[in-house]
Amino acid sequence: MIVAIKLGGSIITQKSKFKTPNLQAIDALCALISEYYKKGVRFIVVHGAGSYAHIPSKEYGLADGIRGDDGQVHFAYVHSLCEELSTLIINSLVGKGVPAISFHPATFVIQKNKLPFKIDDKMLLRYLKEGFVPVTHGDVVLDNSIRTSIISGDALMDYFGKRIAGKLIFVSDVDGLLTSLDGKGELIREVTRDNFKGVYSVVSGSKHVDVTGGMAGKIKNLMSLKCPSYIVSGKHPNRIRSILDGRNDIYTKFIP
Ligand code: IP8
Prior knowledge:
By secondary structure, this protein is an alpha/beta fold. Helices cover 38% and strands 21% of the residues. Helix 2 (23-38) crosses helix 4 (71-95).
């Protein structure tokens, strides 16, 4: 089975401090991916942009495209920050014996009105078939309607969930989906078609700068997929082990 795992920006970086990686979390999560890769699980790794790209994207208004004489430079700068964060993940994985290969959306994704329009995934899928681990991420991309826009790692997860993944794991800095966003709410262990409407109504924006929509944006499409999805805390890698081993634990499971 192919598992698409998203390492959220809130866990791999300190989301409110520009360009601050959380190296301990990156190391622990890559160790876990390595452990299960060696057991035969096939992963696509997606990661968020965290404080590397959300803060400058907001400053330059890149969610709505480039503008002004410096637009292309802003775009290239934010892309380079995404690449820089991605290189940390790649280096950590390769150092742990995982054949991780980077795929930067700026070079294979075109959007239309901020939504994926063409995702040229042939090479990525070929590497996956050959036993490699593709690593991709939220990025700035070309856009047929507004010249450029931003693709979130969640949109890429959605894409893989619709096509090839049997399981989507969203690694976050919270225990799962909670009944309130102040961190004090109760964990919602399972979201099904029966309780989805009620659950969605309690979820609003993220407290951090997040140009791609925060938690509400993240859960929107999960119920339209064929495969189950999970939101789990990256602070407790054993909980991710539980998901991969099929055990109950502290996380939220979405059953479409
Ligand atoms: O952190 C956002 O990706 P995300 C990408 O997965 C940029 O939402 C460029 C802000």
